[in-house]
Design a protein that fits this description.
Layout lengths: L2 H20 L10 E2 L9 E2 L3 H7 L2 H7 L19 E5 L5 E4 L3 E2 L7 E2 L7 E6 L6 E6 L5 E6 L9 E4 L4 E5 L7
Antiparallel strand pairs: 1-2, 3-4, 3-11, 5-6, 6-10, 7-8, 8-9, 9-10
């Protein structure tokens, strides 16, 4: 095989790779939801960054997608104690029953127990601290952190940003 044939073969291979595999730098649009292979797990929700920016408020985006934190004692749900369910503000996934909420004094809504399979945990070593981050198991939105200083029966404190949640009351408020 001559040098010219080898060079031509390499050029064809590179062009083929660029067309088939790289797709000229175009990204594929992700589907809004991807089904889990495990039937017991909730469906994972996948969205592009631009989709999240379009559907979330700037505060929700900052906390849920950029792992931000709201200032202590400023959140809507810190002193909120109605009956119902707290859900993820990003995807509506049920996270906490109101009967597991308590006054921790930390400045953020605190719960001693999450709903089954509602959250996932990640190690968080940001800001020179070693903590456990909690995220929504459906959309991977940042919710807050979990600590081992909560009340019984679990001894756990889920410290959650109010902005990362919405509230669904058990019963509708009475109107006169």
């Amino acid at each position: 095989m001559s040098k010219r044939q080898i060079r031509l073969f390499l050029i064809i291979g590179i062009v083929y790779y660029a067309i088939i595999d790289v797709n000229f730098g175009q990204t594929q649009n992700e589907q809004p939801e991807v089904l889990s292979l495990n039937p017991g797990e909730p469906k994972k929700m996948k969205r592009t960054d631009s989709e999240w920016k379009r559907i979330l408020s700037s505060a929700e985006y900052h906390i849920l997608r950029e792992k931000g934190t709201e200032r202590a004692f400023t959140g809507e749900y810190d002193g909120h104690f109605e009956e119902g369910v707290y859900v993820c503000a990003g995807c509506g996934h049920d996270l906490f029953n109101s009967d597991t909420k308590y006054r921790s004094g930390c400045g953020w809504p605190a719960f001693y127990e999450a709903m089954p399979e509602a959250i996932d945990k990640n190690e968080d070593n940001s800001f020179g601290m070693k903590r456990i981050e909690i995220i929504c198991s459906k959309c991977d939105g940042h919710l807050g952190h979990v600590f081992n200083d909560g009340p019984q029966p679990t001894g756990i404190r889920y410290c959650i940003n109010s902005v990362s949640m919405d509230f669904k009351p058990t019963k509708e408020p009475e109107t006169k």
